[in-house]
Design brief:
single chain; 357 residues; alpha/beta; FAD/NAD(P)-binding domain; D-Amino Acid Oxidase, Chain A, domain 2; eight-stranded mixed sheet; six-stranded mixed sheet; 8 helices; 17 strands; 28% helix; globular; binds flavin-adenine dinucleotide
C-alpha cells in the first residue's frame, strides 16, 4: 500500500519523494518520460538566483534554507550512490549591476557575503575575462551543482531506499470522490492513494483541477550552450546582462540562457546559438579557441511573480502542488520540497506557507 503518490520526476518531485521517504513513508513516483530529463536536466545548477536582491522575500527564504541544506544533501546522496553531484563553491562575479546600493543593502539584510571589488581584483580572480570592470559585485559563497548528476543521484538514492519509481508513465487525470483525492489515472491503469503531490513543472496546470483560478504556471523556454574548454580556464560563475558562464570542473563551460515565451516548444534556434556565443566570446575571447559541444533547451515553470505554488488544493483534500519555481527551481528545490512534505504530513512547517498558496 502506497502512502503518497508524487507525479513528475524533476528535482521538485524527486526531493518531495526524498523527504517523504526520510519520514518513513511509502512513496510511489510516476514520471511521464525518464526521471530528471526536463527543466531539471536543462538548467545551469547555480545555487542562487541571478541578481538575488531583485526577488521577493518569499523566494529569498526558500533560497536561504536550501543553500544551508545543499552541502549535507549532496553528501548523503553522493555517499549512498557513489556518484559525484559536483557541488562546488565557485562564487559568482556580477559585472553589470547598476544598483550596487540595493545589492549591498540586501547582503546586509540577509547576512549574505557580497562586496564590490575593483578591476585589479577581478583580473586576479579571472584573468581570462576581456574586461575587468572597476565596480564588480563578488559573492564568494555561491555554489553550483552539476544538476544532471544531482537528479541521477536522487533517482539512485530513492530506488535504493525503497521508493517505487515508475518511468514512462504519464498521469492523465486526478481521481477524487466527495472532495478527497483517491489516486490518479494513467493510460494503462489507476494508482490509489489518499495523498497526491503534483510536481510536473511547466506541465502542472494540465493536471491541477481549477474551478475558478487556473494555476499561474507556464513554460518559458531557456536555451544553453556548452563549450568544451580546458579545466581552470575560468573558475567563477560570471554574470552580465542576464547571461552567464558556469565553469564545470572538467573544463566544460555552460553559457546561458534565453527567456522565451513560446509555449511547449523545446527546439533550439540558430538565433539563440549566435546570441549566446557572441556573449561568451565578448566576455572571454579565448573561448573562440574551443569547440561548442552542445546546444539544448528546457522549459522553466514560469510564474508571473517568481513565487512557486506549494500548497494543498482548496477544494480537494489530499491533493498538493509543488510547482512554478521558474528560474530558481534548483536552488529552491530542497526548501520547497521540505515545506510541501511538512504540509502533507501536518508537521510544523520550516517556513510560513502563506506566500506560496
Ligand atoms: C536553461 C535553464 C537554466 C536554468 N538554470 C537554473 C539555475 O542555474 N539554477 C536554478 O536554481 N534553476 C535553474 N533553472 C530552473 C530550474 O531548472 C527549474 O525551475 C526546475 O528544474 C524545475 O523543476 P521541476 O521538477 O519543477 O520541473 P521539471 O524538471 O520540468 O520536471 C517536471 C517533470 O514532470 C514530468 N511530467 C509532466 N507531466 C507529467 C504527467 N502528466 N505525468 C507524469 N509526469 C509528468 C516531466 O516529464 C518532468 O520530468 C534553469 C532552467 C533552464 C531551462
Amino acid at each position: 500500500m502506497i502512502d503518497h503518490l508524487v507525479i513528475g520526476g524533476g528535482i521538485s518531485g524527486l526531493l518531495t519523494a526524498y523527504y517523504l521517504n526520510q519520514a518513513g513513508k511509502r512513496v510511489c513516483l510516476l514520471e511521464r518520460g525518464l526521471v530528471g530529463r526536463e527543466s531539471s536536466w536543462a538548467g545551469g545548477g547555480i545555487i542562487s538566483p541571478l541578481y538575488p536582491w531583485r526577488y521577493p522575500q518569499a523566494v529569498t527564504q526558500l533560497v536561504q534554507w536550501s543553500q544551508q541544506e545543499f552541502p549535507q544533501l549532496t553528501e548523503v546522496l553522493d555517499a549512498a550512490t557513489r556518484l559525484d553531484s559536483e557541488l562546488l563553491q565557485s562564487g559568482m562575479l556580477i559585472l553589470d549591476e547598476p544598483d550596487e546600493k540595493a545589492a549591498l543593502q540586501w547582503g546586509a539584510d540577509t547576512h549574505s557575503a557580497i562586496s564590490v571589488i575593483g578591476a585589479a581584483q577581478v583580473a586576479s580572480l579571472e584573468p581570462a575575462l576581456q574586461e575587468h570592470p572597476e565596480h564588480t559585485l563578488w559573492m564568494p559563497d555561491i555554489y553550483q551543482v552539476r544538476n544532471p548528476r544531482l537528479v541521477k543521484a536522487l533517482r539512485e538514492y530513492l530506488l535504493k531506499n525503497g521508493v517505487l519509481i515508475q518511468e514512462n508513465t504519464e498521469v492523465t487525470a486526478i481521481l477524487r470522490e466527495h472532495g478527497q483525492v483517491t489516486g490518479v489515472k494513467t493510460e494503462q491503469t489507476e494508482f490509489k492513494s489518499a495523498q497526491v503531490a503534483v510536481t510536473c513543472g511547466a506541465w502542472s496546470p494540465g493536471l491541477w483541477p481549477s474551478a475558478e483560478k487556473p494555476l499561474p504556471v507556464k513554460p518559458i523556454r531557456g536555451q544553453m550552450l556548452m563549450i568544451n574548454s580546458r579545466p581552470g580556464l575560468i573558475k567563477r560563475i560570471v554574470l552580465r546582462d542576464n547571461h552567464y558562464v558556469i565553469p564545470r570542473n572538467d573544463g566544460r563551460i555552460l553559457v546561458g540562457s534565453t527567456m522565451e515565451d513560446v509555449g511547449f516548444d523545446k527546439t533550439t534556434t540558430q538565433y539563440a546559438h549566435d546570441l549566446l556565443l557572441k556573449f561568451a566570446y565578448d566576455l572571454m575571447p579565448i573561448l573562440q579557441d574551443f569547440k561548442v559541444e552542445r546546444q539544448w533547451a528546457g522549459l522553466r515553470p514560469g510564474t508571473p511573480d517568481n513565487i512557486p505554488r506549494i500548497m494543498q488544493h482548496t477544494d480537494i483534500k489530499g491533493l498538493f502542488i509543488n510547482a512554478g519555481h521558474f528560474r530558481n527551481g534548483v536552488v529552491t528545490a530542497p526548501a520547497s520540497a521540505k515545506l510541501l512534505v511538512n504540509l502533507m504530513l501536518n508537521e510544523q512547517p520550516i517556513l510560513d506557507p502563506k506566500p506560496y498558496s
